[in-house]
Every structure is written in C-alpha cells, then in structure tokens.
Design goal:
By secondary structure, the chain is α+β, with helices and mostly antiparallel strands. It is built from 11 helices and 10 strands. The chain has 2 domains: 3-91, Pleckstrin-homology domain (PH domain)/Phosphotyrosine-binding domain (PTB) (PH-domain like); 110-289, no CATH class. Helix content is 43%, strand content 19%. The strands form 2 sheets. A 7-stranded antiparallel sheet has the order 4-3-2-1-7-6-5, with helices on one face. Strands 8-10-9 form a 3-stranded mixed sheet, sandwiched between helices.
C-alpha cells in the first residue's frame, strides 16, 4: 500500500484563505490523486492543490499553515495532527526554510580585518601625515629634499634682495619662495611652495615681467608634491613622521628625484609678459639675472 492509498480516506477541517484580503473559510481537506482537495460542507470542490507544490510555511504543535505558491498568497491552516503527519509523509514536505545569517568562521573574519587594515591603514596614515604638516613644516621638508639632490643653489646679496622684492610683488604672504639653481630642470614646485628654477631660465627671458608671468604659471602646476612624498615613503617612515615629525632622508631623496624627473615646467609653456606694471627696476632685474654667474 502506498502512502497515498493509506491516507486516501483521511479528512480534516481547515481554514482556507483564497487571498490575503478575504476572511478565512472553513473547508474539508482530503486527499485526491496527488492533490489536496478543498471542499465545502456540501462536498463541492473549491480548490485543488498539487501535493508536489504544496509547502508548509509554519508548524506550531498540531497546527500547520500551508501554501501552494511561493508568495504565500493563498493559505490553508490545518489543526489536525493526523492530517499534518499524512501530508508530510505523502508529499515529503518540510518546514519552509528560514533564512539565517551565516556566521563567518573566525579565521575568515581575521583575514577580512587584516585585508581591510592593509587597504585602509596606509591611506589613513598618509592622510594624517598631510593634515598635520603646516606650511613651515612642508617648506622644511622641501628644503631637505632639495639638499639631498645634486642641485647647486645660486646666491648673491644684491640678487637675493631683488628676489625677495620680486616674490613679494607677485604673491601675497609667504606662500612661495624662489630658489635658483645653476643647472637642472627649468621649473619645479617642491613642497612648501619652493619654486626651483634653473639659472638658464633667467638668461632665456627678456624682462622681469616675462619671468614673473612664467613664475605665476609655474605655481599653477603645483600638484601637491607633499602628497607624493608620503605616497613614495614606506608605512614605517610615515608612522615615524606622525610620531616624531621627521622622515628618513632616503625617502626624501627618492621623492625629490621623482619630482625632478616628472614635473619640469618649460619656459616655452608661457609666451610674453602679462603683468600690468614693472615689478623690478632695471638694476634689480640685472642683479637677479646674474645670480648664477661667477
């Protein structure tokens, strides 16, 4: 005898709700040919549910709730232990699975934490290093970077005075400082607003106005070299800087070399003077032009 033949005469009363908006209706539930037959008390069939598609939504003691669709739109409640057991055996039903959050194994959680640390901590530390570096500190780093290069700075008293006058008339405050070197790139912005300019540039312009206009354009190429300093430094070096305010000279040397190789601003990038009034007297300009001449 099959399970279906065993329960073919089994009947029970159920509460049938054809849709959620209707009140439950009392029906007779019995087995058909691979179906559950829902009838009224006059034995008129009202609905047939395929046993293969019928799922038990919940079970509370002898009371079970069933639905023939995944949305649970139509439902049938049966409070009869024998019928509930019979439906389970015939259709091999199980309680609809409850979605539970699966907990990750501890080692996976550990790996996730390590991966997040590897990805986020360096960025956070470098951002902190940048935030804590004020203008004076940035300029100090820029001077240290410059000192680690082979560039030779030019200096002459009257030229130095002309340089101070020029920068005060071009820029407000102490945002930028001009440093002329004997040989090297035409123009590079080092951290702290250091405008590093090759001596040949001074010989290649016809006036202080033209040179001043070129310096203004040079500052527009400032791509925050301080960011590159910390990006090219090791995490250990960045931590050292955050904790002590110092960074290994070798890291500064690497950053300076990268800057010199990739950020030169040519004199040809700007043509003609656009400054409204003279910014240096003739003798001051001549002195500045000769700053690298021996």
């Amino acid at each position: 005898m099959t399970a279906l033949e065993k329960y073919i005469r089994l009947e029970a009363v159920g509460q049938w709700r054809e849709n959620p908006d209707q009140s439950p209706r009392e029906v007779i539930v019995s087995f058909g040919n691979q179906t559950l037959v829902l009838s009224n008390f006059k034995e008129n069939p009202l609905s047939h549910w395929a046993l293969a598609a019928t799922r038990r939504v919940s079970l509370d003691g002898s009371k079970a709730l069933y639905s023939p669709d995944t949305e649970g739109f139509e439902t049938l409640e049966i409070d009869d232990a024998d019928m509930v057991e019979a439906i389970a055996q015939v259709s091999r039903l199980t309680v609809a699975p409850v979605v539970r959050k699966r907990k990750l194994p501890a080692f996976l959680v550990f790996l996730a934490v390590v991966a997040a640390a590897i990805y986020f901590v360096p960025t956070l530390m470098r951002d902190q290093a940048i935030r804590m570096t004020e203008q004076d500190s940035a300029r100090y780093l820029g001077l240290e970077m410059l000192a680690g290069t082979a560039l030779e700075q030019c200096s002459e008293p009257s030229a130095n005075s002309a340089e101070v006058i020029l920068m005060s008339r071009l820029f407000v405050g102490n945002l930028y400082r001009l440093i002329v070197v004997k040989s090297g790139p035409e123009g590079v912005v080092f951290p702290g607003g250091l405008l590093v300019v090759g001596g040949d540039v001074l010989q290649g312009v016809s006036s202080a106005d033209e040179f001043g206009n070129w310096l203004i354009e040079l500052t527009k190429t400032d791509q925050k070299p301080l960011v590159d300093v910390f990006k090219s430094s090791s995490l250990k070096s960045v931590f050292q800087y955050i904790s002590s305010g110092t960074i290994p000279q070798e890291d500064l040397n690497v950053a300076a070399q990268d800057l010199l190789e990739n950020a030169s601003f040519p004199l040809s990038a700007v043509a003609g003077a656009q400054i409204a009034k003279p910014i240096l007297r003739d003798q001051e300009w001549v002195a500045l032009q000769g700053i690298c001449l021996e």
